[in-house]
Amino acid sequence: MTLNRRDFIKAAAVTGGATAVAVGAVRSFIPEAKAGQPLPTTFDKVPVVNGNFASYPPVEKWGGWRELSGDDWKRGGIGRAEVKVHEHVLVPTICNNCEAACGLTAWVDKETLVVRKFMGNPLHTASLGRNCAKGYAVGSQMYDPDRIPFPLKRAPGSKRGDGKWVRTTWDEALSTIGKKMRETLQRGDAASKKAIMHHVGRPNESGFTPRVWASLGQDCQNSHTNICSAGARMSSLLWVNDDRSAPDWANSRLIFLQSSHAADAGHYFQQSAGQIAKARKKGAKLVVMDPRLSNSAAIADLWIPVWPGTESALYLALGARLLREKKYDREFVREWWNWHDLLDDADELKLLLDRGLIAALPKGNTFEDFEALLLDLYGRYTLEWAAEECRVPLEKLERLYEFVLYAGNRISSFFWRAAGSGNRGGWMASGRTGIFLLGLTGNFNGVGALGQEEGRMIAVAGKGGVACVGEKPAKVDAWNELSYPPEWPLSSYELSYLLPHLLSDTAWQDKWRAKGLSVPQKLSVWIPRQYNPVWINPDGFRWIEVLRDETKLELTFNPSPTWSETNWFMDYILPVGISGERHDQHSEPTNTEAWLGFRQPVLRVALEKSGWEPKDPARATLEAHVKAGLGEIWEENELWINLLFHHVDPDGSLGIRKYWESRENPGKPVTIAEYYNAAFGTLPKLRAAAAQAAQLKAQSAKSDVEKRLAAFAVKYPNYDLLRDRGAWTERVDVYDQHEEELHVDEEKQLVKVKEPQFWGGLVEYPLADVKTDARTQQLYVETKEGRHNVGVKRPGGRLALGFPTPSRKMEFYARWFKDWGWPEYAIPIYPRTKEQRDAMVHVVTHVHHQYMTEPNAFALNPIFRLPYNIHTRSVNSKWLMEISQNHNPLWINTKDAERLGFKRGQPVKVRVVDTMSKLEAGFFIAMAMPTEGVAPGTLACSHHAGRWRVVKAVPIEGFEKPLGVMGLGAPVAALKEEGSKRTLSPVEGISKLRVTPTKEFGERGWPYADFNKDLDNISWDGLSGVWQNAVHHPHPDPVSGMHCWHQKVLLEQPAPGEKIGDLSVDIAATFKTYQVWRDELTRPAPGPGGLRRPEHLKRPWVPLARSAYKMPTG
Amino acid sequence: MDPRARARLYTFLSRLFVKEVDDAFAEVLRGEQGRALLPAFTRSADADALFPEARRVATFDADFAHVTVVNVVPYESFYRRDDAMIESGGANPLAVFLTKYGFEAELGTVRSLSPDHLGIELELMALLCAREADAASDDEARQARAVERELLTDHLLAWAPLYLLAVKRSARTELYRDGADAVLHLLHQHHEELAA
């Protein structure tokens, strides 16, 4: 029997001595006598919210947050004198490592001005205070021992690539560059408007730089997009004329991923993964379609290892079954697809009939006739056929179909890289057929569905013109054929990776010059902004050829935080800041809100908040970095403003200066505060909140510094709010953008709409002129240029905007595609038979299994990202390098490996061949990794590793130590050339470093040796990677212009002496392949009306005049 | 109850739930405290299994694992989180308390996943009661009792009864059934004293 409580109390009296059994599970970490009492602390306590520790200090304490040193406080106890308390100012910024724009806070030590760590920003409503490894690693990039501390210039008398560098000043660099640009612009002829080229890697900002180039009157913008995501973007352009799709992951019931990209590696993955996890917790299914068993696929409900590039078959077959079983969202299709445009186009219907794609012409022009046509078109796309085409078991597709039915109109997906970037016709294999399936199920812009980017992004960085004397630059009347060559009139972005080919191809230049086009034969200034095309583009040796040629690229400079393979061949390397060292307004459609992030130079902000003031307000970032001991690191915003204002157009005669001249202080360049205060002021909610916050600051200011800061806040409230918060959310729950109201001015009886052209402005029509198409419910106005669809009439007579397409509907049928010479692909389509594949080669992947005729032939997938690297800028982050070594082996199915005799860790010779030109580019040697995690017949080898350098360090006269070159991430390699053959071979791996501080740049010494005291502990040699991009054929997709990354390869055992990392390429063969793809596949301009490109189609970034679209005739 | 006696009781019962019975504790259980506080156990046949070690391990270690690891969960966060997960990170409710008052848990010593283990919370209470007993003034004693009250009402009483009732229902030996009962009595008694 047990005790009752009375007995228990009695018993307690006899329990003397029991303390002897205590095990010591709890102890005090402060002096014994004080334990058990609330602590009188020297540090700030983490607040408790709902019983849990808050992840971040309360924002009102960001100005001074005291925290114990993390070194050994637990061992020492806080009462011990040697335990250090650091007082931080938390400065918000935005990560610059990928495009997701997650929030960061820099914890700046007030005493030393060292950033002690980077954490997330809890005020950022999309990243919610969370980051991936790359975000937290920003500190290791900031204090990278091999950072470039001052502007470098190629030594006079040396050639590009000789590796001889001298230290120069920012003033000298800007003066020389500005003079060259000015001379170019002063010529004023057609060629001069395309003689300067800005070639951006990842822009990570929303509109500032386009204003720079618009103000110069140059069609000079080039981007990396066609080696990234241009294929998938084409599909968004086709369906909804939107740049990219934006899924509502968090509320989905089926997350249907094409590759691992969204969830564990690529675009926005850190933010997406959290939302996907949230949806799964609520019961959502996760399906990953990928030939490789990615991290996402491994935890998915279903992994579908499709053959690369055959995704269209799967999407269409699923859609066909919905059609056969009448389980599609009939009302959505009827209301929002432009079915009527197809039924009204007799020529297109006849073409479909003639090609055997339909059995009969529609009987009439009603929606029911369209439904019959859909069944006719797609009825024969069965799951059995798709299983065979995609090489996946039928039962997986049956299960997927059940998931589709389960999810209804809550299916989300994301079309970005993967199929869209790997394959010829990738634009069809990604969103063009993918959105067919999603559209059939009513999945667009709704809760839990895929949606438009429009409305879910804020791009105001180009709208600071109110702060300048010249508000808005005029549209540019020029067309640069090097970025938009006539062969690719529909390319979704610039043919950027072909720049060296086009500059080398004099026959191509002559051909078009003979037809009256002023094709540039050289560039006077080429600026690869934070871009490393030598390494990341296909056919990198071709880039080296052109970079060395001073007659083709007369002056080159790279605003770049790090060394890179490309920088080795530059005239100038200008060290600009990374995530916490620059200003950018950056917004992305990562959720269903409209939010913006503000990237900031955190040391400058910390200094300013302590009362510091720069000598020259237009160079404040540079001055702050020097003062804080970071080096002569600047930022692009101030760089461009100073370059244009002081050096390109110092007297205003070119009409450029006024766009960067302060309205507040005429005669002076605009400051960051002035410019961004104006830009952010264009957002009404932000403006209201900012005014309130500034008033509060003014009321509560006590000290002189506080009063000064409050006065600043009252003067620049919008800028000040973002300086304090780093992020702002202007709208939430952005859904159904196509249902938004048409803008009607009731008083004036006018309708205000956007002109049909991409670079068009707003136009007003009398309301009485707006007619309704009774059959389609389209609202339209008859203009002298034809019918302008302006919206869609909704039930009850409401006037909605519709989609931003020519028809204001989702374009199942893209009439403009037909008009521009691609009628057979104007609808979502995929060949069903070998004969059809041969006839429709433009939408059949160049690595289709029908091309794998040799026993050792494989389709190589090189483009999956590694979640802890970003293509080039993470090369010397010690933390990211430590966790990313040995991570680009060649994934090969175990059965294939056994058949060909490859074992784990051994070298494999990978010969790269092209299925169009039939030419062999050369070979690279990779490390074998036999695995069940890759589909038989396919290979995977991420192209995110295999960096190289040619020297370990560069001596700089006058500086006390040589500058290290990518010492933590790139082995030393030997490059050789013989005729058209180029080789690279690693000769020495990465080794330990000992970092000693310099006397220059402050008391602490550069480059913060204390932070790098652990570099005697490097455990990686970097020798397992290979620079495979160099051996890749350039494969320009004939429609989107996307480089189709996948390669057909032949595997064999290496020859004696060949080792992992070796490569050899014939740049004559790769050049020929570019020509074959161009000449045999493209359908060049001019299009209807003699235009170079459809006017409604996106063409970033510089606004063009309509006259620029007109193609000259010789 | 005298705070020093209360401290001893908490210590004794903490020891019971924090790790398996070893030689030293077996002696205590067989001695005066064991007999006084766990009479049902002392009179049961289970008490014969305290020695030798092999028999003790076979009898009690399995039951210890059963009521603290495998089938019943002795962590506060398990009972208080909506998703019934053990919070082993910084958001642990007891970690907040510990930091606030200058304590830390030695998780390795007791092989605990997180600081909100019953054994740790009981030992912490023992330390607080000892503080009360050592108080140099009434004010200090009052302050100490305020901290005890916070630990008792905000933590132990919020979840431990649920756990202890589950142990009473499912323990296979009288040792843990009786021990659970004793903890319930102690918490109840302590609560009444603090409320008085």
Q: Separation of termini of chain B?
A: 12 Å
Count of DSSP H/I helices of chain B: 11
Main beta sheet strand tally, sense and closure of chain B = none
The greatest inter-chain interface is formed by: A-B, 39 and 61 residues
Write down the CATH topology of chain B.
TorD-like
Helix content of chain B: over 70%
Provide a count of the helices of chain A: 35
**Gross morphology of chain B:** globular
What's the rounded overall pLDDT mean of chain B? 91
Which parts of chain A are unreliable, with pLDDT below 50 for 5 consecutive residues or more? 73-81
Which CATH architecture of chain B would you pick?
Orthogonal Bundle
Summarize the structure.
With 1114 residues, chain A is of the alpha+beta class. Chain A contains 35 helices and 41 strands.
Q: Overview of this structure, please?
A:
The complex is a heterodimer of chains A (1114) and B (196). With 1114 residues, chain A is of the alpha+beta class. Chain A folds into 5 domains: 32-142, Phosphorylase Kinase, domain 1; 152-228 and 477-573 and 1090-1109, Rossmann fold; 245-452, 3-Layer(aba) Sandwich (Dimethylsulfoxide Reductase, domain 2), CATH 3.40.228; 744-801, no CATH class; 852-1081, Barwin-like endoglucanases. With 196 residues, chain B is mainly alpha-helical. Chain B has a single domain (3-195), classed as TorD-like, CATH 1.10.3480.10. Chain B is globular, with a radius of gyration of 17 Å. Classes of the chains: A alpha+beta (1114), B mainly alpha (196). β1 of chain A pairs antiparallel with β1 of chain B.
Jot down its keywords.
heterodimer; A: 1114 residues; alpha+beta; Phosphorylase Kinase, domain 1; Rossmann fold; Dimethylsulfoxide Reductase, domain 2; 5 domains; 6-stranded mixed beta barrel; 35 helices; 41 strands; 17% strand; globular; B: mainly alpha; TorD-like; 11 helices; 2% strand
Write the layout of secondary structure elements.
The complex is a heterodimer of chains A (1114) and B (196).
Chain A: H1 5-12, E1 26-28, E2 48-49, E3 52-53, E4 65-68, H2 73-76, E5 85-94, E6 103-109, E7 115-120, H3 133-136, H4 138-142, E8 152-154, E9 165-167, H5 170-187, E10 196-200, H6 208-216, E11 221-223, H7 230-240, E12 245-247, E13 254-258, H8 261-265, H9 269-281, E14 285-289, H10 295-298, E15 302-304, H11 311-324, H12 330-336, H13 339-343, H14 346-354, H15 367-378, H16 383-390, H17 394-407, E16 411-412, H18 419-422, H19 426-440, E17 450-452, H20 499-504, H21 506-514, E18 523-527, H22 533-536, H23 540-548, E19 553-559, E20 572-574, E21 584-586, E22 594-599, H24 602-609, H25 620-627, H26 636-648, H27 672-680, H28 684-700, H29 704-715, H30 717-725, E23 727-731, E24 743-745, E25 750-754, E26 762-766, E27 771-772, E28 778-783, E29 786-793, E30 799-800, H31 815-819, H32 834-839, E31 857-861, H33 878-884, E32 890-893, H34 894-900, E33 907-913, E34 920-931, E35 938-940, E36 953-954, E37 963-964, E38 972-978, E39 981-988, E40 1047-1052, E41 1063-1066, H35 1067-1081
Parallel strand pairs in A: 10-11, 10-18, 13-14, 13-16, 14-15, 18-19, 19-20, 31-35, 32-34
Antiparallel strand pairs in A: 2-3, 4-5, 5-6, 6-7, 8-9, 8-20, 12-17, 21-22, 22-23, 24-25, 25-26, 27-28, 28-29, 29-30, 31-40, 32-35, 33-34, 33-40, 34-41, 36-37, 38-39, 39-41
Helix pairs in contact in A: 5-26, 7-19, 11-15, 11-16, 11-19, 27-30, 28-29, 28-30, 29-30
Chain B: H1 3-18, H2 23-30, H3 32-37, H4 39-43, H5 53-70, H6 76-80, H7 93-100, E1 103-105, H8 107-110, H9 118-133, H10 138-170, H11 174-195
Helix pairs in contact in B: 1-9, 1-11, 9-10, 10-11
